[in-house]
Specification:
The chain has 3 helices and 10 strands, in the order αβββαβββββαββ. The protein is of the alpha+beta class.
């Protein structure tokens, strides 16, 4: 094989290898991750260009400041956000809820890696840390978005995740 042919093979295989590399973490998480269930908040039922899908918000994205380590609060006050944090989770009545937010990756236990955006007061005046987990959209079967919207307003939707080392993949949504 001459030099030109080797360069062509390399140039064609490089994009394929990059795309395969992007799939490794999600696939590994799906195969080896632990299951986690999160309670959702109201969601959006459809988009004319992408079909029926839901934009999910989670109760675990709004965490009282009392559960946030002082180091996280200090960093937020000194430098602002957003920045990565780790949210240690605990299971209560079948649903995982935040136990503690920290800058340090936990050595044990089930946790999510998230991004803290800001700390502010909610409607009742309690200080809340607002986080994101990048688990936003879930695509549905056609013509089912309205049913999911109704279930959402009743607070009946649970999100099933697979989590490995803080990385999460949204696998399904169900009703209570």
């Amino acid at each position: 094989m001459n030099n030109r042919a080797k360069q062509l093979v390399l140039a064609c295989s490089l994009p394929v290898l990059i795309l395969l590399g992007l799939c490794i973490t999600p696939i590994y998480t799906m195969l080896t991750g632990e299951e986690m269930i999160l309670q959702t908040k109201p969601l959006d039922p459809s988009d004319p260009f992408r079909g029926d899908y839901v934009t999910l918000r989670y109760e675990a994205e709004e965490i009282p400041v009392g559960m946030v380590d002082k180091a996280v609060v200090n960093r937020m006050q000194n430098r602002g956000g957003p920045f990565d944090v780790y949210v240690l989770m605990e299971k209560k009545m079948g649903v995982h809820t935040p136990k503690r937010v920290t800058l340090e990756k936990p050595d044990k236990g089930l946790f999510l890696k998230g991004t803290i955006n800001y700390i502010d007061k909610e409607n009742q005046g309690q200080e809340i840390a607002f986080l994101e987990y990048n688990l936003d959209n879930y695509y549905l079967e056609d013509n089912t978005g309205t049913e999911w919207e109704k279930a959402s307003f009743k607070g009946e939707i649970l999100a099933k995740l697979k989590v490995n080392n803080g990385y999460a993949v949204l696998t399904d949504i169900t009703t209570k």
